[in-house]
Amino acid sequence: MAANEATRPRVGSHLFLMLLLVAFLFPVGWALLSAFKPAEDIVRAPLAFDPSTFNLDNYTAMFQDVPIGQGFLNTAVVLLFKGACTMFFAPLAALAFAKYQWIGKNLVFGAVLVTLMLPTIVLIIPLLLEMKELGWVNTYQALILPGAVDAFAIFWMRQVISAVPDELLDAARVDGCGEFAIFWRVVVPVIRPGLAGLGVLTVMNIYNDFVWPVVAASNERMATLQVVLSTLAQNITGNRIGADYAAVTGELLAASSVALIPLLVLFILLQRHFINGILAGSVKG
Amino acid sequence: MQRHLLRRRALIASAGLAAAAPALAACGPDIASDDESGASELLKAPDRTKGEITIWDRSGDLFEVFEGTIAAFNAKYPDITVNHVAVDIDAKLQNTLITGADVPDGVFLDDAKVGGFTDYLWDLGDVLAPYAADIAQQKLDVNTVAGGVYGVPFDLDPGLLFYNATALEAAGIDVDAIATYDDLLQAARDYQAAVPGAAPIHLEQSAFLGQLQLEMYASQLGTSIADADGNLRLDTPEFEQILTFLDTVRAEGLGTRAEYLTPTDIAELDNGNQVFYPWAIWFSFAPQQVLTETTGDWRATQLPAWETGGARSGAMGGSSFVLPKDGKNADLAWLFYEFLMFDPAGYAAVWGPGEVYPEGLATSIPSYTPAADPAKPLYSEITALGGQDLWTVATEAGAQIPGGTPTPAWWTGAVDYLGNNVQRMLDGDMTPQEVLAQSSEDIQTNLVDRQ
Amino acid sequence: MTAPTATATRRAPRAGRGTARLRRRAAPYLFVLPFVAIFAAFSVYPLFFTARLSFTDWRGTGAATWVGWDNYTYLLTNPAFWSSLGNSAILWLLIVPVQIVLGILVAVLLNNAKLRLRGLYRVAFIVPFVTPLVAVAQIWVVLFDQRYGAVNAFLGLFGLPDTGWLTTSAWAKPTLALLFLWKTTGFIVIILLSGLQSINASIYEAADLDGASKARQLWNITVPLLRRTIGFAVVLQTLAVFQMFAEPFVVTQGGPYNSTTTAGYYLYNHITRADLGTGAANSFLLVVLVMALSLLFVRLLRAKD
């Protein structure tokens, strides 16, 4: 292949990727920067950025009006427990699907698929009534337990664990390892990259989940970060009459920035693990 | 269609789940039970004045206003602790009422939504009885469902004609001469002739607020979307007259189509293109807190009449306080609202000058007539209205609002039909007659027949 | 996605053979137990409750009245129900094909180890996926505002007229689809990238020797070999699009004129009106539809194997 033929498409692909890059980063960058603008300017001149007018007013107003600290705390609790459940029990279940023969396997795997297909919104009301029966409304367990062992995580870990050679498991058995020890001492270390990917994905899903939390946490002391954000957003979208559109938008962008930054930092720090982790769970072509 | 009480077994069998019946017998919360056992639905005033109440308000200006009244309330009832929370009421209330967990004792609710929740609310007929004769009829009507009163009426929101006095004067338009909607159309034409490119009259683009404004026009004519028995009365000459007016504004290019106080709307108000805003008194929020260029230029006057001598105002929106039956101290919450609405110290704390509105809560007037006395203003000159005495304008308008305009339980649901169809008309895609016929049919099948 | 067989059964450990075998038999049941417990408690139980509810007119309080198939016939004869499915179908058309094509192109480019700034691209494309939806929604509302939005301001530079992106029924769906594309394409890219990594590079070397153009290679080699991964992505996104609720909930509230009332959002409308019986019936219809679609795609994939 001639040299110029090899380079020409590369320029084109860079151009294509750069355009996409701008399109993908622009909205987030715009939001992060706009949060520092005077509220009226955000909506009246969304493309103008005059650093001399930058201030922290939106942040001050937001911290004053919005219980964002409480939101962080609740999200942290849910993240810790729900995340732990998925990170532990999903690979465990996946191991059963990937490496064991047992009666009812297809049936239970069917249950995993069904869970994947069930829209959250379908279960909202019956789940809420169930929480009522259990006396769990406005409790952490209501936020944590439904969906605590994520179906997608099982599905994905099953792929990852399938790639682990059976010989490795057998060797451990020969050494007298119990079945759980095989999981803990053999499988888990081998699939660590996949688990890292799962970890980031799980954190992201739980952190950004809001349909069920909005319903399950009617009391503001239980409101997660996303519930706090959506309550704020309702001031704009829900025909809120006595709310200043620009001011609320400013507060929302400030709150969104505060909510986004931890996840963004986490992701940038762990992106190699995340991406390699997903690659580890590849659905083979 | 034969309807009978739900029986588990029959239901399971017909759901094709008979095989699983034994296991399912205990499945799912028992939806057939009703443990109210005929207990009275009528709230009784408490014989105690000690306890804690949880009060929900929507966030925004009114939350701050009510927050500021708690001190005055505690001056009278020092032993009642008010736990005041800003809540996204639309998203939370229904679920909270269904689950019955952590139910607040009192909730701020749009009048149009009260009807949808009456199953869960105390009937306030008894406690309101001493005041009922002095409450604006329109507010009692919207809170009354099947003989029960389910909300403590809060504000009365007379529709007013807001106008940009400076701009209109410069164009030589005499607002005082506008007595009917035909006059308003003429004034708009004249303004447009003087200011080319102007689109003087506001045309609401939100389906919900558009329907609310439609009800304001209808209220002027003493009618509403449904009568007290819940029967539709939409396909009537009154509504046709209103829609024809709106359609004329559209057809002649006299209207600015925008959603209430979104950036576009604000810009058109501030640049003098949009100078007539027939809206509830709460529009005064705009010149007070949102408009920058034209604050101080705006004034309010009574609405034009639909025919000479007709009522010069109608009600638009407004809210009430509801007391859920599952609220543990709903009776104490009643004391809170009784104080705020009917005690001179209370309504002075609500409508008088405060932190959020230094000149008073000039976005509404009390619905309790003794509080809305033109002679005893709770607020008066509003700087943003060029020092106009809004209290007098509003109380005089409020006194003209005809009663007999109840709100059906399905009012918000109707936005999908009536609200949307009005917008289609403003797009030029439907005629007023089509809007009324189509909406009536859809509302009848999807809402009235499915109650 | 083949289920591996436990080849290990052939070799059994010497000591404690009986208990070890028993343990090994019992292990998978214990391993899936937590999932099954959660599934039974928070999926099966509510689903049966939904089934019961769908034959009543229950409004959340008081006694429920048995109405037979009323709720189902109401929905199936209601144009609004069908139009909600239609809206979801149109969104699917606007999203999935575009996303797959875009995803393959980007994944193929990023798969080139010599690509400069590869790390930057990989991070950049996944950033939207990390961003909270509630925040994105408001960003969208402001950026796509007809008069002040950055999008119209940008298009105005080329002399294009202002478009009511979120206020006209013609544009609201594409705008919502764009949000969905923006938010999830990065994830699809990574999934496709994972499929690409399992393709043996020697195949391309052979094709290069044969003089096949890059475009031809993409179409004749990459796409067929990626078929299963692509299928996986399609199923995943089909589920997501037909379950879509949060996006219209936060951006358009189903409007204008119900043009973004997706299947999921239409269902939510019943709930907000406390018409829980109809909501339950709608839930069932939606579940059946989503499952049927997933099975259909899985079948289509299998048929090609």
- Gyration radius of chain C, to the nearest Å? 25 Å
Helix/strand/pairing category of chain A: mainly alpha
Main beta sheet of chain A: strand number and arrangement?
none
CA-to-CA gap between the ends of chain C? 13 Å
Q: Note the beta-strand portion of chain C.
A: under 5%
Give the overall shape of chain C, derived from the CA principal axes: globular
Task: Detail the poorly predicted runs of chain C.
Answer: 1-13
* Mean pLDDT, all residues of chain A: 86
Q: What is the assigned CATH homologous superfamily of the largest domain in chain A?
A: MetI-like
Q: Using a beta-carbon cutoff below 8 angstroms, give the protein chain pair with the largest interface and the number of residues from each chain.
A: A-C, 109 and 113 residues
- Tell me the number of strands of chain A: 0
CATH structural architecture of the largest domain in chain A: Orthogonal Bundle
Distance between the termini of chain A: 28 Å
Supply the number of helical segments of chain A.
Answer: 14
What can be said about the biggest beta sheet of chain C? none
What pattern of helices and strands is seen along the backbone of chain C? HEHHHHHHHHHHHH
- What count of helical segments of chain C does DSSP give? 13
